[in-house]
Specification:
The chain is an alpha+beta fold and 143 residues long. The protein contains six helices and four strands. The longest helix has 16 residues. The termini are far apart.
């Protein structure tokens, strides 16, 4: 009698799927990918139609006072900025730059939402659902 051998395929974990999706995206940081994925897959938005990823404002990084806005929603007049503690909280000049750029955007009538990296990595859905309503979590979560 012949033995029947059945090979059960290995199922990828959600972490493996997310890592593969992030590698395939290949455009920005992991926290930015988390936001992009939320917008495209959860909210079913179309990039370059409903939102713009990494758009230059006020001349971009090459012009004094310029910036690159992480996520811009033209029809909502809303800006989402992905903020990492090491680039936005440590040095006084970085904190001042963030405040100035926030004021510039708000003077244009934009709703500005800061999304902190630690929040995006630890509780993305909660933070992004708040952001979608135009709210933000005040500063990064403490561990």
């Amino acid at each position: 009698m012949r033995k029947l051998t059945i090979t059960i395929p290995r199922v990828q974990s959600q972490e493996e799927i997310d890592a593969a999706d992030y590698a395939a995206w290949g455009r920005g940081t992991k926290p930015e990918f988390i936001v992009w994925k939320y917008l495209v897959r959860t909210k079913r938005l179309k990039e370059e139609v409903d939102f713009v990823f990494q758009t230059n404002m006020f001349g971009g990084r090459r012009i004094f006072g310029g910036l690159v806005l992480d996520f811009y929603f033209p029809s909502l007049n809303m800006a989402w900025r992905v903020q990492g503690e090491q680039f936005h909280l440590v040095l006084v000049k970085d904190r001042v730059h963030d405040k100035v750029t926030r004021l510039q955007l708000e003077q244009l009538g934009m709703v500005v939402v800061d999304l902190w990296v630690r929040d995006l990595l630890s509780r993305p859905r909660y933070v992004l659902d708040l952001a979608w309503q135009g709210h933000e979590v005040e500063g990064p979560v403490d561990e």
